[in-house]
Specification:
The structure is a single chain. By secondary structure, the protein is of the alpha/beta class. It has 14 helices and 15 strands. It folds into two domains: 152 residues, Aspartate Aminotransferase, domain 1; 219 residues, Aspartate Aminotransferase, domain 2 (3-Layer(aba) Sandwich). Helices cover 38% and strands 17% of the residues. The strands form three sheets. Strands 4-10-9-8-7-5-6 form a seven-stranded mixed β-sheet, with helices on both faces. A four-stranded mixed β-sheet has the order 1-2-3-13. Helix 12 runs parallel beside helix 14. The longest helix has 22 residues. Bound molecules: pyridoxal-5'-phosphate.
């Protein structure tokens, strides 16, 4: 990488990255001409691939008409069209859409709508939002309070209202069979126990990532879990919020991950693939039954300045059209099966891969020092960091985090854009193979004997 002057920009750390020049389809190029395959769609965002011409054309057309119209002053055709399309693609009854600019904002909006609904319907004692441990729902203080990922939450604990948590259904770690309904019920019943312990009259909502994201590494719930969760929430008057920020817009092989289990939540939140990285955009989609009492009770006391921006909404409409035109949910399902089979092939050859999981093109593998005991790799290897760096040097972008509360248990998410072909899958597998070999060479002498 050529030496560059001081950057005035900062994010998490001091590390510098190559400068992005161009991106097209599944590939990205830096200004020095190096090509990368975007094997994580950014942060599971660019689902339809980079620089899609139809989306760019739609954005250009909208830009030439108007780029901003404040929602208190105008309705726009773009925001009405996106709201209507979104309502059409989400389960029946969920047909009121509230626009935001990202996932954390969508989660905040869902929590606040749920709370205002409780207040408006005479249930003001309900305020607790139960979530799972681990989970990730966003970085703003409200969304962080329902997140469970120690490195991200610890510094801010005194500033947040503690919220109840239940264990995420990590059957593979607990030695339970995920195909058995009894396993799903075992974990779902922990939610009911928690609701009863807290007092159902105090519990407002349960929020869940239907297929886990970065905090669990594409955790797929065991059989019977989601259906039972829906029943429990209904029984206790607790609203079910599906966080589809990462899973929505087709990534798991259906438009919404919740569709795999045929459940209807009360609220859905989306972002990431919903606008596929073309613009900052997210949405909260709520059941009419929740929205009407809030509007009758003086209105929803919440909103962001950029919400419903016509340029963002025009891009969103075009992204959803491309998902349909190119049949990308189906492609995510088929290519996801092909990629998962290839990852399992790598697991056969590399004993440090202890688990391969996920649905559609939301896939991950988890490193383990010992498959039989599920012991994680030594934390000081920082495998989640190092492996991503090696793959990056080899021209493959993947995403990683730590599965076990963010402190150990390294997993790597492999989530290419939903436009991938078999040839791309072979290329990804080849680069993963080379990167795993290099990583093993680096660390084999530091591993416990069993690995
Ligand atoms: N919810 C989930 C499941 C996510 O994966 C994320 C981001 O990774 C968020 C919420 C927060 O979204 P954002 O980073 O756009 O605020």
């Amino acid at each position: 990488m050529t030496e560059r002057g001081k950057s005035h920009l900062f994010y998490q750390g001091r590390g510098r990255k190559p400068v992005l020049d161009q991106a097209r389809g599944v590939y990205m190029w830096d200004t020095e001409g190096k090509r990368y395959l975007d094997g994580s769609s950014g942060a599971m965002v660019c689902n339809i691939g980079h620089s899609n011409d139809n989306v760019l054309d739609a954005m250009r057309r909208q830009m030439e008409r108007s780029t901003f119209g404040y929602r208190l002053h105008f309705e726009t055709e773009a925001s009405e069209a996106l709201a209507a399309k979104t309502a059409e693609l989400t389960p029946e009854g969920l047909d009121r859409v509230f626009f935001v600019s990202g996932g954390s904002e969508a989660v905040e909006s869902a929590m606040k709508l749920a709370r205002q609904y409780a207040v408006a319907t005479g249930e003001a004692s309900r305020w607790k939002v139960i979530s799972r441990a681990p989970c990730y729902h966003g970085c703003t203080l409200g969304a962080l309070a329902i997140t469970s990922y120690t490195p991200l939450t610890r510094p801010f604990e005194p500033m947040m209202q503690p919220m109840p948590k239940v264990p995420a259904p990590r059957a593979y770690l607990d030695g339970l069979d995920p195909e058995e309904e009894a396993t799903g019920h075992h974990y779902a019943d922990m939610l009911e126990a928690k609701i009863l312990e807290e007092g159902p009259e105090t519990v407002l909502a349960f929020i869940v990532e239907p297929v886990g994201g970065a905090s669990t590494g594409a955790l797929v719930p065991p059989a019977g879990y989601m259906e039972r969760v829906r029943e429990i929430c209904t029984r206790h008057g607790v609203l079910l919020i599906l966080d589809e920020v990462m899973t929505g817009a087709g990534r798991t092989g259906k438009f919404l991950a919740g569709d795999h289990w045929g459940i209807t939540p009360d609220i859905i939140v989306m972002s990431k693939g919903y606008a596929a990285g073309y613009v900052p955009l997210g949405a909260m989609v709520a059941h009419e039954r929740l929205v009407e009492p809030v509007l009758d009770d003086g209105g929803f006391q919440h909103g962001f300045t950029y919400a419903g921006n016509p340029l963002a909404c025009a891009a969103g409409v075009a992204v959803l059209s491309e998902i349909e035109r190119l049949n990308l949910c189906h492609n995510a399902e088929v290519m996801g099966m092909g990629l998962k089979a290839r990852l399992k092939g790598l697991m056969d050859r590399y004993p440090i891969i202890g688990d391969v999981r996920g649905k559609g093109l939301l896939l991950a593998f988890e490193f383990m020092a010992d498959r039989s005991t599920k012991a994680p790799l030594p934390t000081d290897l920082r495998a989640f960091d190092r492996f991503v760096q090696i793959a990056y040097e080899n021209g493959l972008i993947v995403y990683s985090r730590r599965t076990r509360d963010g402190t150990e248990g390294d997993h790597i998410l492999v989530c290419p854009p939903m436009i991938v072909t078999e040839t791309h899958l072979d290329e990804i597998t080849h680069m993963l193979d080379a990167s795993l070999r290099q990583f093993m060479e680096e660390i084999h002498h530091k591993l416990p004997k069993t690995a």
